[in-house]
Amino acid sequence: MEYSNMDPETAANFVKGKHVAIVGFQKSGMDIAMECSTINGTERPCTVVIRTPHWNLPDFFPWGLNLGYLYLTRSSELTVHKPGEGLVLSLLATTLSPLRWALSKFVEIYVRRKHRLAKHGMVPDHSFLNEFSSCSLSIVPEGFYDRVEEGSIKLVKRAECVGFSKEGMMLKGQIEPIKSDLVILATGFKGIDKLKHIFESKKYQEFIAGLDDSAAVPLYRECIHPRIPQLAIIGFSESITNLYTSEIRCRWLAELLDGKFKVPSIKVMEKDIAEWDKYKKRYSYNKYYRNSCIAALHVWHNDQLCKDMGWNPKRKKGFWAEWFQPYGPMDYRG
Predict the structure, then answer these.
(1) How far apart are CA 42 and CA 57, in angstroms?
(2) DSSP 140
(3) Using CA atoms, how far apart are residues 46 and 18, in angstroms rounded to an integer?
(4) What pLDDT is attached to residue 60?
(5) What is the mean pLDDT of each run of 10 residues along the chain (334 residues)?
(6) Contact, 57 vs 138, CB < 8 A?
(7) What confidence score (pLDDT) does residue 68 get?
(8) Could you give the C-alpha distances from 232 to 77, 112, 208, 279, in angstroms and in order?
């Protein structure tokens, strides 16, 4: 964040002529690595320390394919087990599991070949569906792996930073440090800790964090805590399209505050939260996840919000559009 807040000239002078190491392999980490490699070239290559390889996407797919047709339609969500789905939908998701596997494998094969992941030792251990369901996708900057091949970016795979020395950054299980004059931590932020410390009360801190360290913040409709009804948290639970997902939750909250509908009992809300938690753990690539993601079920989630508010959840015209076209912000206008 400190680096990103610099103006371009200051940032360039900050890294120029230095051995830069970056911890993290999501969007910010890759973007900063590209900038450092442009400034310092192969003379002082930028080192990217990667704990977990990801199925990061190219900026376009072949044949004009829109990834939304594979994962953001009502029909695509039939292949995934959903919270509170009932017997019929559960059987359908089980029956369609080969299709679910095939869609994930199709994307993996393309990304693997496009970015030459095997050559660089960057093939993830988890599936693309796991990646998508964890909201861990990033767009790879154009030419990133070309920089890797020319030597201006070096990748250190499946490594973990444990400390620093005069020579540079120390990695777990390695004796020699990574030579670095400057280390940039592109590792995200601890959202749960920020939320916990809203409260001085240990009791309310436990409400926010949950009793299970592997759980995300327990929020009903990904908005409100059943045991803290005066608190709404918008934007903690991610989607593939965060802006409009947050906006429709704001609308849901406004309708609730206006008395247009009422939430159920604490017991019912906590049961619903437990079902969503079970879904997230089932499809996340990391069973100890600390984030909350509804990307693979964003239509299902929005359907629930619409039903609460008394809206028709089916927003498109015609059978084909309703089931096979991606859902987006314009479907919920008005």
Answers:
(1) 25
(2) P
(3) 9
(4) 74
(5) 90 94 92 95 94 87 74 93 93 95 93 93 92 88 93 91 87 87 87 80 81 71 90 86 88 95 95 90 71 88 96 94 92 85
(6) yes
(7) 85
(8) 27, 40, 11, 22
CA distance 93 to 296: 13
Question: DSSP labels for 171-217?
Answer: ETT-SSPEE-SEEEE-----HHHHHHTT-S-HHHHHHHH-SSTT---
> CA distances (Å), 84 to each of 90, 235, 319, in order?
9, 23, 24
CATH classification of 191-332, choosing from 1.10.3720.10, 3.50.50.60, 3.40.50.2300, 2.170.130.10? 3.50.50.60
- Could you give the CA distance from residue 115 to residue 95 in angstroms, rounded to a whole number? 32
| Cα(302)–Cα(249) distance, integer angstroms | 9
| Secondary structure element (H or E) that encloses residue 3, with its range | none
- Give which of 62, 76, 60, 64 is closest to 326, Cα–Cα: 76
Written in H, E and C, the secondary structure of 47-116 is EEECCCCCCCECCCCHHHCCCHHHHCCCCHHHHCCCCCCHHHHHHHHHHCHHHHHHHHHHHHHHHHHHCC
Q: Which two tokens stand for residue 156?
A: 């250190």
Q: Where are the domains of the chain?
A: 8-185, 191-332
Distance CA 178, CA 196 (A): 35
Cα separation of 170 and 168, whole Å?
7
Task: At 154, list the tokens.
Answer: 């070096």
How distant, in Å, are the alpha carbons of 58, 141, 209, 212, 305 from that of 328?
21, 24, 31, 34, 15
